[in-house]
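Need residues for this backbone.
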C-alpha cells in the first residue's frame, strides 16, 4: 500500500509542475545564449533563429521522464519542420559521451547541445525535463518544467497558431 501511495505522489509531482508552468508575462526575457555542440567543436547562438519558433528542451540521461519525452519531441520536430520549427535540446549530463550513448540506446536523433552552468542558473533550470518555447521574435511563449503527456500537444498548438513561414531557405539545425 505504501508503494502505491508513493508512486501516486511521484506521478502527481511529475505532472504538477507542467500544469503550473509560468506564462510569458511571468518569465523574464531570455538572455542571449550560445549553445555548444555535444562534441564541443561548434556552437550556435539561439538568437540566430529569430523569425522561427524555437524549443529549448533541457534533459539528462538519468532523468526518467526525459526518456519518455525525447521520442515525443523528436516526432514533434519532424512534424513541424515545414513550419520553420527549431528544436534545440540541451543535455546537462556532466560527461557529454554519456548523452551520446543514451541517445543511441534510446534510438533518438535530435539536435543536442550543451550550455554553461552559469547560463542554466540564469534561466532557472532546476527541474528536468524543462521546455522553453520561444516565439518568432524570441519571446517566451511557454516555460514548462517536469513531464506531462500534453507538453508536445501544447507546443504543436502554439507553433501552429504562429503560422507557417516554411522551412525553405532557412536551413535545418543539424545534430552533432
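Answer:
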Amino acid at each position: 500500500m505504501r508503494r502505491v501511495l508513493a508512486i501516486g505522489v511521484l506521478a502527481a509531482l511529475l505532472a504538477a509542475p507542467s500544469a503550473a508552468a509560468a506564462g510569458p508575462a511571468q518569465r523574464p526575457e531570455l538572455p542571449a545564449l550560445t549553445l555548444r555542440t555535444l562534441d564541443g567543436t561548434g556552437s550556435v547562438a539561439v538568437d540566430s533563429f529569430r523569425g522561427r519558433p524555437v524549443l529549448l528542451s533541457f534533459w539528462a540521461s538519468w532523468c526518467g521522464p526525459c526518456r519518455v519525452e525525447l521520442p515525443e519531441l523528436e516526432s514533434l520536430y519532424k512534424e513541424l519542420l515545414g513550419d520553420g520549427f527549431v528544436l534545440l535540446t540541451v543535455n546537462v549530463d556532466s560527461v557529454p559521451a554519456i548523452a551520446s550513448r543514451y541517445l543511441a540506446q534510446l534510438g533518438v536523433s535530435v539536435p543536442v547541445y550543451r550550455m554553461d552552468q552559469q547560463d542554466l542558473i540564469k534561466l532557472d533550470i532546476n527541474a528536468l525535463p524543462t521546455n522553453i518555447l520561444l516565439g518568432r521574435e524570441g519571446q517566451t511563449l511557454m516555460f514548462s518544467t517536469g513531464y506531462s503527456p500534453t507538453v508536445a500537444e501544447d507546443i504543436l498548438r502554439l507553433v501552429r497558431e504562429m503560422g507557417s513561414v516554411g522551412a525553405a531557405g532557412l536551413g535545418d539545425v543539424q545534430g552533432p
